Polyketide cyclase (Bradyrhizobium betae), 123 residues
Amino acid sequence: MNDEARLRTWNIYQAAWGPVDEDERRRLLAQSVTANFAYTDPGSQIEGRDALMTRIGQTQLKFPGASFRNDSFLEHHEQGLFRWTMYDGAGRVFVKGESFGRFGEDGRLIQATGFFEVPAGRG
């Protein structure tokens, strides 16, 4: 799998974090992450696609309409480093961060770790 395919997978994964309905989110995650996907960020540590669905739903409840844009991507040996920007529901920059991801043999993500600081008053 080349880096364009991995970037496409990452972008599908990021789209699942955006303001989409539950059925679309489930479809996007099925395309981009394995069933036993592991996710960590400063506030959570979860395992499994169903737990990720719940985590993303909580994020959308807390920050309605939030979405992500991938700013840069570095990749080697089935791993990727992604720099991204999160926007609030009005389209304003909310937070910038980086995520590390590992891809499985089928090209989907098996693990992602997010690194970011939530702006004061937003946590």
About this structure: The domain at 3-116 is CATH 3.10.450.50 (Nuclear Transport Factor 2; Chain: A,).
